[in-house]
UniProtKB/TrEMBL annotation:
Name this polypeptide is given: Phosphatidate cytidylyltransferase
Localization per Swiss-Prot or TrEMBL: Cell membrane
Family: Belongs to the CDS family.
GO annotation terms (biological process): CDP-diacylglycerol biosynthetic process
Chief subcellular location: membrane
Topology relative to the membrane: Multi-pass membrane protein
EC number: 2.7.7.41
GO cellular component, one term: plasma membrane
Keyword Membrane recorded: yes
Domain of life per record: Bacteria
PROSITE patterns, alphabetized: CDS (PS01315)
GO molecular function terms listed in the Swiss-Prot or TrEMBL record: phosphatidate cytidylyltransferase activity
Alphabetic keyword roster: Cell membrane, Lipid biosynthesis, Lipid metabolism, Membrane, Nucleotidyltransferase, Phospholipid biosynthesis, Phospholipid metabolism, Transferase, Transmembrane, Transmembrane helix
Amino acid sequence: MKQRIVTGIVGGAVFVTMVWLGGWVFSLFISVLASLAMVELLKMKRIAPISVMGIISLLSMWLLLVPTNWFEQVVPFHFTKVEIFIFVILVLLMFTVITKNTFTFDQVGFVILSSVYVGFGFHYLIMTREIPDYGLYLVFFVLLLIWTTDSGAYFVGRKWGKNKLWPDISPKKTIEGSIGGIIAAVIVGLVFYAYFPIFPSYITAIMVILVASVFGQLGDLVESALKRHYSVKDSGNVLPGHGGILDRFDSLIYVMPILHLLQLI
């Protein structure tokens, strides 16, 4: 427990500092975290990061991760990131034929889905921080909602939790805890918004709060499902007492793309 607390304090302080600094420092920091998260997924699948498939997976993830302005400065061709990613998919499918299914369709699916999950998740975190004037507050707002939801779900679940939320995926989570987490997020989120009105209306703020709280919990369940599928307790051990990068950022990288796709931020 002591190790967990120390790691949480130090890790939280480092992350908050990086968010505060923003700019290329934050983008580079997030790129490192995304790379570690991708390595964790590869190891779950028992793929060596330094291998043909491992390197292809990392390159695919970086393609989706990097901010568009970085990409345009490095790549001299007039292709978008999505167009190049589609081309990569077609090349991977071609490899299934060339290798006579040594490189299988399932492995192609793993590369694609992992790249999108990690790459786009962290990409939208970078993009949110880069929003002029409000980026810093938006990132802190979503972080606060996720942390509040987790804490509310934990304490409410411990005291009143009786009905399991999804026992096949996460045996300890309860419906009561989940609802408690959402209520806690609404209360804390509205207090935050009262002091920092970063949205055009309370309706938008409430929509962001509900999406972040509900889909944050779903993101946590997605990562739990991954760990159960690959029979691992934690995604990694880079954070002593907390597991891996995916264990800590599963909710955040799931919520950020959804908020952007729904045009809430």
